[in-house]
Design a protein that fits this description.
The chain has 341 residues and is mainly beta. 13% of the residues lie in helices and 44% in strands. The strands form six sheets. Strands 6-5-4-1-7 form a five-stranded antiparallel beta sheet. The protein has a five-stranded antiparallel beta sheet with strand order 13-12-11-8-14. Strands 15-16-17-18 form a four-stranded antiparallel beta sheet.
C-alpha cells in the first residue's frame, strides 16, 4: 500500500513539474532585441488599463516572447517579463550596424566639432527614410566625420510658398529630383557619459568654429565644412595663436564636393590679427583632410580631389606663412593668389 502511494506521489510530482515548465518557464523566444530609447517603460499587460512594472535603459538586451498589434512581450536578462511598444525596440541587425558605425567613427579622423541645434534623430544610413537608431536632445556635443549628399524624398518636399523647418522638409526651391541635402556621420556625447554614432541631417547641427573664422569665411562667401589647426605661433604678448586651414563651399547644401575652396589663416605679428595667407578654389575636395605636423612648426596636409573628374591626391606644405602645393614631377604649375585681411 505504501509503495503504491509512493509511486502515485512521484507520478503526480512529474506531471506538476512538466506542467510548470510548459506554462511558466519554457515560453519560446521569437527573437532578441535591444531597448531603443533612453527610458523604456515595461508594462504588466498589453491592455489599455495597465501598470508600469519596470524601466529599461538604452541598449538593454531583451528576449522577445510574443507580439500583439504594435506591442511586444519581452523578458529582461534578470527574468522580468512585461510589454513594451514595438517602436521602442532595435533588432539585432540594426544593433550590430550601430556598433559598426561606432567602430567606423573611432577609426576616422575628426573633421569638426559642433552640437545639435534641435531634437534630432540619428539614422543607420544617411536619408530620412532610413531606420532610426536613436533620438538625441538639443545641445548635444558631436564630432563630425563624413558628409554625404542625399536626395530629399518626394514626400518630404514642401511647396515653395509653404516653407517648413523640420526633418520633414525645408524651403523647397528646386525640383524634387535635383534637390539634395547634407547628412553627417557624427558621434554624440550624451549626458550619461556614453557615446552613440549615427547619421544626422546636416542642418540640425551648429558647427563650433573658433572665432574669428566664421566672420572671415562669411565675408568670402564660404560655407564652412571643416577646419583644422595647422600650428601655433607666438604673438607680441607671448601668447600662442593657432593658425588654421578652413575648407568649405559656396552656395546651398547637397553639393557633390565636400569642399570647393580652402583658405589658410595665419597670425600677423605686425598687424596683430588674422590674415588670409593662402586661397585655392580650383578643387573638388573629399574629406578627410589628412594633417601632418612637423617639428619647428611646419605642417602639411592632403586630401582626395575630383576636380578633373578622376580621383587624385593633392598635397600642400606650409613653412612659416607660406603654403605651396607639392606637385608630381612634370605637372603644370598651379595658379594661386594671396590676399590679406
Amino acid at each position: 500500500m505504501i509503495r503504491k502511494l509512493q509511486v502515485g506521489f512521484v507520478v503526480v510530482l512529474v506531471i506538476c513539474i512538466a506542467a510548470y515548465l510548459r506554462f511558466h518557464h519554457s515560453k519560446p523566444v521569437f527573437e532578441v532585441a535591444y531597448a531603443a530609447n533612453r527610458q523604456v517603460i515595461l508594462w504588466d499587460t498589453s491592455a489599455e488599463i495597465r501598470e508600469a512594472i519596470g524601466t529599461l535603459k538604452y541598449g538593454d538586451r531583451l528576449d522577445v516572447l510574443d507580439h500583439f498589434q504594435q506591442q511586444a512581450k519581452v523578458r529582461t536578462t534578470k527574468g522580468l517579463t512585461g510589454w513594451v511598444a514595438q517602436s521602442d525596440l532595435l533588432s539585432v541587425d540594426v544593433w550590430q550596424k550601430m556598433q559598426d558605425l561606432e567602430a567606423r567613427a573611432t577609426a576616422s579622423p575628426v573633421e569638426g566639432h559642433g552640437h545639435t541645434r534641435v531634437l534630432s534623430n540619428l539614422h543607420i544610413v544617411p536619408g530620412r527614410e532610413s531606420p532610426r537608431l536613436r533620438q538625441i536632445g538639443k545641445g548635444i556635443p558631436v564630432e563630425l566625420f563624413e558628409r554625404q549628399a542625399v536626395e530629399v524624398p518626394a514626400a518630404a518636399m514642401a511647396p515653395a510658398s509653404q516653407p517648413t523647418h523640420s526633418e520633414d522638409g525645408d524651403n523647397a526651391d528646386a525640383p524634387a529630383a535635383t534637390r539634395k541635402e547634407d547628412w553627417w556621420l557624427v558621434r554624440a556625447h550624451l549626458a550619461d557619459q556614453s557615446t552613440v554614432a549615427g547619421w544626422i541631417l546636416g542642418r540640425f547641427l551648429d558647427l563650433e568654429v573658433p572665432a574669428p573664422l566664421p566672420d572671415y569665411a562669411s565675408s568670402a562667401g564660404m560655407r564652412i565644412a571643416a577646419w583644422f589647426e595647422l600650428n601655433r605661433v607666438v604673438d607680441l604678448s607671448g601668447g600662442a595663436r593657432p593658425q588654421y586651414l578652413v575648407v568649405g563651399t559656396r552656395g546651398s547644401e547637397g553639393q557633390p564636393c565636400d569642399f570647393t575652396q580652402m583658405r589658410v589663416f595665419t597670425w600677423g605679428k605686425q598687424s596683430q590679427r588674422y590674415e588670409t595667407a593662402f586661397v585655392a578654389s580650383d578643387l573638388c575636395g573629399k574629406l578627410p583632410v589628412k594633417l601632418t605636423q612637423a617639428p619647428g612648426g611646419d605642417a602639411s596636409f592632403s586630401f582626395e580631389d575630383w576636380s578633373t573628374g578622376a580621383s587624385q591626391q593633392r598635397r600642400y606644405q606650409m613653412h612659416q606663412t607660406v603654403v605651396r602645393r607639392v606637385r608630381e614631377p612634370g605637372a603644370a604649375p598651379e595658379k594661386r593668389k594671396k590676399t590679406h585681411g
